[in-house]
Structure formats: structure tokens, C-alpha cells
């Protein structure tokens, strides 16, 4: 995307609350330049947008799974045909390097195909056999009906993967969707929404609203289901607000992911994985490797290899040429947190083997950093850093590694490196939603299996069957196949009829002959 000021209006007509900004300024974090001003949507604008897509939702639901997949397939084709344009916008508003941006459109294409081709299996109507022959006259079915309007509130670190990635299964389920992207990265999603409406010409069931927390709060008030991705601090506010209207929520929150390196690991692979898993997207991934526990015999070699790999990374503004490895910090709020964590660690005895400080501007960069001599009294090993920083600790054995890995309020994901069987048995004891064995981050691409946080990393799941079912309400249809004018349980109550009902119930539900016959043992 070209620099310069672009007025992007999402149709703000309503009155703003006192103190709320009229526009948000979008800055390229790689250069510090303002690249756009985006009109903020007031609560009234949000209500109007939700009402509009709500009015079209019934028709969207009625076209069925295949009909919706046809439209989403057109979106997949648009993403693939316009990848360079999408990546340009993404780089401009996030400061990512091209390589880190480039995974987003292909992931989304895969996700559209995954849910398009599995939706019938995941949310198609189910025929259920009654559990007792007393219900033999009933035909039981379960249908999955979408929450009419799903509101999605998303962060800035993967502006399309996290906003569109949650919208895709909701749309495939038959919901209408309104997204509030992060105020730091509003442009990419707005571009996709415009393409959905104008270039693809798809039904008007997918839109976005722009703004800060106030706009997000208004969406919580209007939506029938809220999918939130962001920090646990904001997640708490969203859940509290949703409680006012008893709106169900799914929360994908922060992490402090551990990596365990066993003495029998392939240390070259483990060190390369730690470098990529910790520094990819400048460490701004909820599933980034943030803490590393290495069994004593492997510690020195692992640390030397990791420090060399991280020390070689090329950082800075990147064009479309894949010339850099580590990009900018997208949110100034986050770079302050990263700096504070590293300063706290260094002040308390940690050592930076490489990196350790902010880079002089222009642009907002933090050096790729490997810290040793860290412990769990330090913020960098306790709180989410969300930057290009890893802390490495030497441990006696796997038991100590597991104790430390699980010593956290978070539980998003983790990884274990070592001999296959041993690593897998250690992985099974890490307390989190997903563990990679001899790999990092890859579970996000294995969309066949659910991912979701334990403890304060979230509530609910994305991916797999739960990742689409969560957008649906179950409706059980219990249909009578045959019956007389009156069921034995209905009025009028008489001693004889109730007695018969009781004897039949006992005969079916008792598990020994005496009781079936109504005799006490
Ligand atoms: P954030 O919590 O500051 O903001 C997330 C979104 O919530 C933004 O769109 C923001 O405008 C909105 N918001 C802020 N206040 C609100 C309020 N009161 N009501 C409604 N909406 C409100 O998070 P962030 O800084 O954008 O993102 C970084 C965080 O996201 C990290 O903690 C990271 O771990 C987490 N994250 C989690 C996942 C996951 O899948 N678990 C994925 C990516 C990022």
C-alpha cells in the first residue's frame, strides 16, 4: 500500500460519546509514518451495521452449507488472486517482514476449504437413536442453527488470520458477522470487506466497524455471540459486559508458552525451532516460545546454538523482497511492555547473550534477545512479553522442567524437544491446550484439531469441530412417529394409569429381575 493519508470511512453517522475520538490515525510501525485516518464508528453506527446484516442473515442461512461455501470459495480465490495487494497493506499497518505476512492469505484459503468441506460433518443435521425403547415412537434429530449475528473483536498481531480466520467458520455456519479489528490495524480487514461486497458481490452479511474499546463494547451489546481475541485483561472486560445481556463468548487470550528441551533432543533442530518460534513476527504471537527449560547436559550447546541463530537475524523495514527476518513492534503499548520486562530481568541478574534493547528509530524495533540467568521471580518469565525475547533456564531433569513449565497462570500451548517417545510422554503432562513435539507453532496449521487456552489463556476453541460448532445453537427435534389420542403420561391422572406407567418405567430401568418385577430384594 502506498504511503500518504487515506481517508477510510466505515460510514460513521452516529453521535460520538464524549471524549471518544472521531478518527484513528494508522501508523506504519516500520517507519513511524501516518498512512491513514480511519473514521471511528459510534455505538449507533455499530447498532445500524448489526441490524443491516441481521436482516440478511435468514437468507444466508437458507442457502445452506454448499451455497455458503460457494461464496466463501470466491473469497478464497480473491485472496489468492490479490495476495500481493493484501500483503502490501498488511506490511504497511503492522511493520511485519514480508515472510511473516505471507502466510496469512494461504492459511485463510486452507481454512475456507477445511470448513467448507467439513461443515456437513461438523454441523449437519444428526439423527439420534433413542437411548431407550420406551421412546421408540419418537424420531430424534439435532440441528445446528447459527447465532444470527456473531461479533468478532480482534487484535493487531495477525490482522487477517485472527479476524477473517474467526469470521470464516461463523459465515460457513450461517451467521452474519461484524468484526471490530484492532485500532492499530484497521485497513487490511476493511479492504477484504470491501472486496466481499463490491468485487465479489457476495450477500451483505459480513461487515466491519472501526474504533477503540468503546466500539468493541458496543459490538458486545449488539451481537448474539462474541468471539474475542486479545489480552486477558480486555477479555475480562468483554466477558463482564457480555454478562449484562447473557451473550455467550469465546475468548482466545494471551500465553506464556514454554519450550522444554530434553538432553536427548536434536539440538540443532531445537535451537533453530526456538529461534523461529521465539522471534517469528517479532515474537508477537500468542503462541510464541517465551520461556525455555533445558536439561543440564544439553544446556551449553543449546544456548550457544540459539544465541548464534538469533544473533544472525536481519532486522528492519522490509519491502516485498523477503530481505529481512524480524520486523517492527506493531503496538507502541506492547514495545513498552517488552522493554520493561527486559530491563526488569537485567536489573535482577539476567544476562542478554544477544540483543537486550530497543533500536533507535525511525520505526519501532526491539532487538532479538536471548536472556539467561533468568528465574520465575522476573516478569520476563511470568507475564506475557509478546516481543522478540526468550528467557532460557537450565533444569536438572524433565520433572523440574515440567514443574516450571506449568508454573504459570497461562496455558495456551507449548512444545517439547527430545527422543520421540520420551518427548511425547513429557508433552502429555504440559498443562495447556496444545503441545507440539519436536516442532513449534505448527498446531495452528493442523486445523483438524482444536486449539484453545487453559487457565487464563481463554475459554472455548478455534479449529476442528468445536471451531464451527461454537457459532451454533443446538435445536433438538423430537417428532412423534405414531401415537393414539392420548399418551399414558397425560391427563387424566388415575391410580390405574399412573400405576401402569410406574410398572413400565421400573421394568425398563431396573437392572435386576426382582426390581423389574416390582419386588424388593
Ligand atoms: P487487546 O486486548 O488490547 O485488544 C484486543 C481488541 O479488543 C482490540 O480490537 C481492542 O480495540 C479491543 N478492545 C479494547 N478494549 C475493549 C473493551 N473494553 N471492550 C471491547 N473491546 C475492547 O489486545 P491486543 O494488544 O490487540 O493483542 C495482543 C493480545 O492478544 C496478547 O495478549 C495476545 O496473546 C493475544 N492474542 C491471543 C491469541 C489467541 O488465539 N489466543 C491470538 C493473538 C493474540
Helix content: 40-55%
Strand content: 15-25%
Strand segment tally: 21
Report the radius of gyration as a whole number of Å: 27 Å
Strand order of the largest sheet: 13-16-17-12-11-18-19
**Shape call:** globular
Q: Indicate the structural class.
A: alpha/beta
- Overall mean pLDDT stands at 96
Largest sheet: 7 strands, mixed
Structure, described:
With 521 residues, this protein is of the alpha/beta class. Helices cover 41% and strands 19% of the residues. The protein has 17 helices and 21 strands. The chain has helices at 43-62, 64-81, 83-94, 98-123, 159-173, 187-199, 213-222, 232-244, 267-279, 296-311, 332-347, 379-382, 398-405, 420-427, 466-469, 495-509, 513-516, and strands at 6-8, 23-27, 34-39, 126-128, 138-146, 149-153, 176-180, 206-208, 225-229, 249-252, 257-261, 289-295, 351-354, 358-359, 365-366, 369-372, 389-395, 413-417, 434-437, 458-459, 472-480. The strands form 5 sheets. It has a 7-stranded mixed sheet, with helices on both faces. Helix 3 (83-94) crosses helix 4. The longest helix has 26 residues, at 98-123. The protein is globular, with a radius of gyration of 27 Å. Residues 1-14 have low confidence and may be disordered. Bound molecules: nicotinamide-adenine-dinucleotide. Nicotinamide-adenine-dinucleotide binds at residues 153-157, 162, 180, 182-183, 212-213, 216-217, 220, 229-231, 234, 237-238, 252-255, 286, 331, 384, 386, 412, 453, 458.
Amino acid at each position: 500500500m502506498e504511503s500518504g493519508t487515506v481517508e477510510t470511512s466505515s460510514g460513521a453517522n452516529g453521535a460520538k460519546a464524549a471524549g471518544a475520538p472521531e478518527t484513528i490515525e494508522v501508523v506504519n510501525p516500520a517507519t513511524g509514518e501516518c498512512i491513514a485516518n480511519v473514521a471511528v464508528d459510534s455505538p449507533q453506527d455499530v447498532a445500524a451495521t448489526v441490524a443491516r446484516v441481521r436482516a440478511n442473515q435468514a437468507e444466508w442461512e437458507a442457502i445452506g452449507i454448499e451455497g455458503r461455501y460457494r461464496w466463501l470459495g470466491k473469497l478464497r480465490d480473491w485472496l489468492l488472486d490479490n495476495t500481493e495487494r493484501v500483503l502490501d497493506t498488511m506490511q504497511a499497518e503492522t511493520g511485519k517482514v514480508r515472510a511473516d505476512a505471507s502466510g496469512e492469505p494461504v492459511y485463510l484459503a486452507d481454512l475456507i476449504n477445511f470448513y467448507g468441506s467439513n461443515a456437513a460433518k461438523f454441523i449437519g443435521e444428526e439423527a439420534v437413536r433413542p437411548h431407550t425403547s420406551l421412546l421408540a415412537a419418537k424420531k430424534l434429530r439435532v440441528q445446528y442453527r447459527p447465532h444470527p449475528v456473531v461479533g468478532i473483536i480482534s487484535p493487531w498481531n495477525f490482522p487477517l488470520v485472527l479476524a477473517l480466520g474467526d469470521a470464516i467458520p461463523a459465515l460457513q455456519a450461517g451467521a452474519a458477522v461484524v468484526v471490530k479489528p484492532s485500532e492499530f490495524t484497521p485497513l487490511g480487514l476493511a479492504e477484504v470487506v470491501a472486496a466481499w461486497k463490491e468485487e465479489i458481490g457476495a450477500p451483505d452479511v459480513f461487515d466491519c466497524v472501526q474504533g477503540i474499546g468503546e466500539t468493541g463494547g458496543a459490538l458486545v451489546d449488539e451481537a448474539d455471540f462474541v468471539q474475542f481475541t486479545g489480552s486477558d485483561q480486555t477479555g475480562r472486560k468483554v466477558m463482564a459486559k457480555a454478562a449484562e445481556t447473557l451473550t455467550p463468548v469465546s475468548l482466545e487470550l494471551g500465553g506464556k508458552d514454554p519450550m522444554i528441551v530434553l538432553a536427548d533432543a536434536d539440538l540443532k533442530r531445537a535451537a533453530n525451532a526456538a529461534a523461529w518460534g521465539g522471534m517469528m513476527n517479532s515474537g508477537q504471537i500468542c503462541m510464541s516460545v517465551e520461556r525455555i527449560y533445558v536439561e543440564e547436559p544439553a544446556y551449553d550447546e543449546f544456548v550457544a546454538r540459539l544465541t548464534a541463530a538469533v544473533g544472525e537475524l536481519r532486522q528492519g523495514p522490509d519491502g516485498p523482497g523477503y530481505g529481512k527476518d524480524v520486523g517492527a513492534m506493531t503496538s507502541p503499548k506492547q514495545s513498552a511492555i517488552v522493554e520493561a520486562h527486559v530491563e526488569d530481568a537485567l536489573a535482577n541478574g539476567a544476562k542478554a547473550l544477544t540483543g537486550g534493547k530497543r533500536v533507535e528509530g525511525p520505526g519501532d524495533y526491539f532487538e532479538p534477545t536471548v536472556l539467561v540467568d533468568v528465574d520465575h521471580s522476573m516478569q520476563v518469565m511470568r507475564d506475557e512479553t509478546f516481543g522478540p525475547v526468550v528467557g532460557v533456564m537450565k533444569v536438572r531433569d524433565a520433572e523440574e522442567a515440567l514443574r516450571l513449565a506449568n508454573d504459570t497462570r497461562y496455558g495456551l500451548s507449548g512444545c517439547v524437544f527430545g527422543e520421540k517417545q520420551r518427548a511425547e510422554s513429557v508433552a502429555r503432562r504440559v498443562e495447556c491446550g496444545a503441545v507440539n513435539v519436536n516442532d513449534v507453532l505448527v498446531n495452528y496449521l493442523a486445523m483438524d484439531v482444536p486449539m484453545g487456552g487453559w487457565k487464563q489463556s481463554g475459554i472455548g476453541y478455534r479449529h476442528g469441530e468445536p471451531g464451527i460448532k461454537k457459532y451454533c445453537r443446538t435445536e433438538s427435534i423430537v417428532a412423534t412417529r405414531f401415537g393414539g389420542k392420548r399418551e399414558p403420561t397425560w391427563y387424566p391422572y388415575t391410580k390405574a394409569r399412573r400405576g401402569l406407567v410406574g410398572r413400565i418405567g421400573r421394568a425398563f430401568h431396573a437392572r435386576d429381575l426382582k426390581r423389574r418385577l416390582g419386588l424388593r430384594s
